[in-house]
Amino acid sequence: MRLDQAVSLRFSLSRRVARDAVRSGRIEVDGAVVDEPGSPVEADAALAFHRDRPVRRHVRTRLAVLHEDSHVLVVDKPAGLLTVPTEAREKDTLWSRALHYLQHRYGGRPYAGIVHRLDKDTSGAVVFARSRAALHALQARFREHAIDREYVALVEGRPPDAGTLDADLVREPGLRRSIARPGQEGRRAVTRFRTVERFGNAAMVSVEPETGRTHQIRVHLSAAGYPILGDRVYGREVVKGAPLAAPRQMLHARKLGFPHPESGRNVSAESPLPEDFAKVLAALRARKKSGPAEPGRVGAPKGSATRGR
């Protein structure tokens, strides 16, 4: 459940008032201040509402900046935050925070061109363009797949040391994607991965998408039999024998690199692992170290499309 929703229910507040309370630093979760309304919380989490606590200033303008110059802005997106508004016209998004940051820092009417997006519950590096010329140059590179990107994911199962997932994707009703069936026309999607650490019936993989289709990594890994832990759409229900429960999909955009749209010099940004990802990773490592009995597989999904190498 989202933190603002939990606060609304627990203290009989409207969603707007609950969001404001979270953003102002007046909400504690298990004794610690959490000021991201979209942060996931457990149903039995200890929530405290400090109504008289002084408001934290500039919460909406706070942004973790990974790289900044007069042409590009690379920022760190937290999980639970939309990159851009949907048809519901959400006011608090990564894009709006980037605009607030630029306005607070430079004044005037800032420009933050939208180059690409991450799923709401995926964390990591996102680039915005600070001019229209930079926007067109960066969008062209993304269309041509001439961007260096690395994701890390915690997955279920025992993937090979390395592999390439090459399977076209089709859109289903709503936002879901799936592997194209024989004879069905889809959009080409290619994902390369390598396994960097194993935890019995789970692993951490490094992923480099050669194409940039919606939900590509999540669909490909799930279809290959290695669903991302915590993925509520393409993963499996948490059942006995599953590796570990996770608060959200354990997918993080760790590295982003591209030639600068003006100078041509390489821009490279790296996003550190967020706290929730690091906690699940630490739990997997601790369980591996303690040496429990190997859990049984819970059944691989259909539609696998893997070439090991």
Order of helices and strands: HHEEEEEHEEHEEEEEEHEEHE
Average pLDDT metric? 87
Q: Kindly state the percentage of residues in helix.
A: 10-25%
Q: Return residue spans where pLDDT drops below 50 for at least 5 consecutive residues.
A: 57-61, 293-304
Question: Number of helical runs?
Answer: 6
Element layout with pairings:
Elements: H1 3-11, H2 15-23, E1 27-29, E2 32-33, E3 47-49, E4 65-68, E5 72-77, H3 94-106, E6 113-114, E7 123-129, H4 132-143, E8 148-156, E9 162-166, E10 169-171, E11 177-179, E12 190-198, E13 202-209, H5 216-223, E14 251-259, E15 266-270, H6 275-290, E16 306-308
Helix pairs in contact: 1-2
Would you write up a description of this structure?
- This protein has 6 helices and 16 strands.
- The protein is of the alpha+beta class.
- It has 2 domains: 3-49, RNA-binding S4 domain (Structural Genomics Hypothetical 15.5 Kd Protein In mrcA-pckA Intergenic Region, Chain A); 65-308, Pseudouridine synthase, CATH 3.30.2350.
- Strand 4 (65-68) and strand 5 form a beta hairpin.
- Helix 1 (3-11) crosses helix 2 (15-23).
- The longest helix has 16 residues, at 275-290.
- Mean pLDDT is 87; it is low at 57-61 and 293-304.
Brief overview, please?
With 309 residues, the protein is of the alpha+beta class. It has helices at 3-11, 15-23, 94-106, 132-143, 216-223, 275-290; strands at 27-29, 32-33, 47-49, 65-68, 72-77, 113-114, 123-129, 148-156, 162-166, 169-171, 177-179, 190-198, 202-209, 251-259, 266-270, 306-308.
